[in-house]
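[Q] Does anyone have a clean C-alpha cell version of this?
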Amino acid sequence: MSALQVIGDPVLHSKSPLLHGAMLGALGLDVPYTARVVKKGELPAYLSWAEANGVTGFNATMPHKEDLLPLLDALDDSAARCGAANTVALRNGKWMGFNTDGPGCLEALREAGMDPAGKAVLVLGAGGAARAVVPALVSGGAARVFVANRSLRRAEALCGGDDRLSPAPFDLDTLVRLAGQSRLIVNCTSLGMADTPSRFGSFDFLDALPEGAGVFDLIYHPAETELLKQARLRGHPAANGLGMLVWQAVLALEIFLDRPLDRPRMAAAARAALD
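[A] Here you go.
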C-alpha cells in the first residue's frame, strides 16, 4: 500500500496530515498521510527508507525545501524556478520535485478577489517564500512586481534580468512610493508571525495604497496580523495565508495521485477539517 508523508524539523505541528487526510477521505481513498521528523542532513537516508517502505510522495518543510533539489531525479518548472521543492512524488522509480507554494498562493489570491492579473504588486521580502510567490505572480499576469527587501542584493538576485521585476530596499520612504503605484501587497516576510519578536516599524506605507488595493499576508498564525488589521482599518481588502495553505495542499494531492481533482471540492474538504 502506498503512503504519503510530510517531513521536516520541526514538523509534528504541521497541518498537512489534517488537510490531506480530509481530502483523501473525501475521495474515498484509504491512504495514510503522516508527519515524520527528518533532521537536516538526513535526506539521503530518508529517500532510501521512503522508497523501501512504500512512501510514494511527501511534502517537505523547513529545513529541506532547498536541500532536496540536488538529491532528486528531476524537477518541474515551478521547483526549478524558485530553487526549492515542497512536494516530491515517486514516478517510475524516480523522485520528482515540485513546488506548489507559488501556484497555491496564486489560487488563494484569486479566491480572495485579489487576482494579480494586470496589476502592479508590491512583494515584501525576498526569502524562500518570495522566491516561490514572485514567479507565480508573473505567470498569473502581474503587470509589474516590486520586490522590497532589507538586503537589496537578495532582492536583485530574485529579480534577475526580468524587466517585469524591480528590486527595492525595505525602508519606509521606498515602501510609501511603491505602495502608491501598487494594487496589491503580498507579505512574504515573517514580520507579524506569532512568537516572532520582529515587527513592522511603521504602517504608514498603507496610507499610500490606492483605494481598493488588496493586502495579502502569507502568515496565518495569528489569523489577523497587525499588517492585515491596519489594512482593514484603512478600508482595504485583506486576507491571511490560510487559503494558500489549503490550495498548495490541493495542488500537491493532484501531484501525488497524478490526476486532476475537483479542486473546489478538495479545498472545501480541507477547509472543513480546519474548522
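[Q] Thanks! Anything notable?
[A] The radius of gyration is 19 Å.
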